[in-house]
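It would be a great kindness if you could assist me with a short task in structural biology. The matter concerns a single protein, recorded as an amino acid sequence and a row of backbone structure tokens. Kindly check, if you would, that the fold set down in the tokens agrees with what the sequence suggests. Thank you for your consideration; the sequence and its tokens are set out here:
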Amino acid sequence: MKNTAAERIVEEQAIVIRPLAFQRKADAAYDVVANMFIIEAKDLNADGPHILYRPLYTPALQQYATRSDLLKAIALAGPLLSSVLTWLTDRARPIYSNNGFNEPHIVHFHVGDDFTPFEKPAPAILVGNAAAADWLKAVEEDRVLSSLFVS
């Protein structure tokens, strides 16, 4: 990252790095993927590339035109999906595996639910500023290393 906020401007857009995170349903906790990030404009509605940064994989950088394209690429079976599932927490992994980005596995059946109609869950979403608030603050205050290595 550039040293000052002024150096992190591209075509009049502030550029930030956010942790890759998903939300399985409204009001659910965020599921953050360890060691994966999105480099993009701070304004989520701005045009421009959205770059997936996976420092432990080759290629480390993959560019997508929109956040939606990025999410679609992750949801497709293949090496990208496998890498994302690998770095999700053990608790979150079953929710997103087996087409879980398109239909998160969050519906639970209970005794007496035999004939209860269930609605299909909405697709998971990429989380923006809400999940990255602490991270973005650390970047702006030049505290990234300390936020990564706090014990």
